[in-house]
Amino acid sequence: MTARAAPPPRRDWSLRSRAVRGLLYQALALALIVAAVWFLAHNTLTNMRARGIQSGFDFLFGPAGFDIGEMPIAYDSLDPYWKAFLIGVLNTLRVAVLGIVATTVLGTLVGVGRFSPNALVRGLCYGYVELFRNIPILLQLLMWYLLLTEVLPDPGEPISVAGLFFLSKGGFSFPVPVWGLGQALAGTGALVGAIAAWLWARQARLHFETTGTQRPVLLPALALVIAGGVLGWWLGGAPAAWNIPKSGEASVEGGSALTPEFISVLLGLSFYTASFVAEVVRAGIASVPRGQSEASGALGLGRGQQMRLVVLPQALRVIIPPITNQYLNLTKNSSLAVAIGYPDVVSISNTAINQTGRAVECIAIIMGVYLTTSLVTSGLMNWYNKRAAIKER
């Protein structure tokens, strides 16, 4: 005679249940927050109407009436405000993404350098951290901007490298290919090669974990990316037209250019944040027991292999959470770019406020942009953190 399965436990919906009380408290807190936000918004709009101040986001569809120095997309002063804000957001994202990449590379190298057996390397890395970490970021941005706009030669007499690259107070000019089908296919091929390189690196890591034999990763990965780009370029007709800059009487003409404002913001944010990232990496490496390095050395791994294959993967569990905060700080610190005239979302908002008087709406847009970018960054890093934790297990 088979035993009957026990009936599922009945949920206790009385106030004696801790789960029920928790749900009620959360619902009450959410209701209070919604009520507070509604009260503040209603009170603000009422006071603005009483003083004859216009409100609303309808101004976004009117002509902006001002020019923007750096335009990643086509823009004209007769375009609506929403497009001007879009350019500001794109400029902010451009600095944030490139800054995060540069900060990660530089900060990791400096953090690893703190453990170098070479006393000179250790001292330089230590000096870098103490120098850039203890100078306010705004002063660093101003320092880079003054250096680029005061020390460098005039645009009419730039510093030239091989007649292709020019550096002056007007910025950094460099040649770019004339865009066409061949360039598009080359970029697509390089992207496919990068995916293949990632798969190869993953397979090499699994092979090392299984057999203890290390396969080359860097050179095959570079070969895959280059081969993919060259193949796409060849399939697109192998175009060879380039837009090469030339030095004119008053400025450098042609090619593409990076403005002093963009270079200053990127360098300032990268060097400043990398000093904090270096300390995060140093703390993560120091958290790995010394026996791990000794054991990997006993297996015949060199110091570089020990750091890359044994120590750093274990240190990620300590590195990822605090380094996420540094990425968020870099993105939010980009708002200081308005001090040197870089047209980010804050700069565009200031101009819109002066022209329309919609201060509340423009500030709300700024808050929404930085809140969204911060949440996306946190979400991606949390996903990577969970993935790294699963691999470690």
Derived structural class? mainly alpha
Average per-residue pLDDT, rounded, comes to 86
In the sheet with the most strands, the strands line up as 1-2-3-8
How is the main sheet built? 4 strands, antiparallel
Number of helices: 11
Instruction: Provide the succession of SSEs.
Output: HHHHEEEEHHEEEEHHHHH
Ranges where pLDDT stays below 50 over 5 or more residues in a row are: none
Strand content: 5-15%
Number of strands: 8
Task: Determine Rg (CA atoms, Å).
Answer: 27 Å
Tell me the span between the first and last alpha carbons: 44 Å
Coarse morphology: globular
Could you estimate the helical fraction of the residues in percent?
A: 55-70%
Can you describe what's shown?
The protein is mainly α. Helices cover 66% and strands 6% of the residues. It has eleven helices and eight strands. The chain has helices at 18-50, 81-113, 119-133, 137-151, 181-211, 218-235, 260-287, 290-298, 303-333, 345-356, 359-392, and strands at 159-161, 165-168, 171-174, 176-177, 242-243, 246-247, 252-253, 256-258. The strands form three sheets. It has a four-stranded antiparallel sheet. The chain has a two-stranded antiparallel sheet with strand order 4-5. A two-stranded antiparallel ribbon has the order 6-7. Strand 2 and strand 3 form a beta hairpin. The protein is globular. The model has no long low-confidence stretch (mean pLDDT 86).
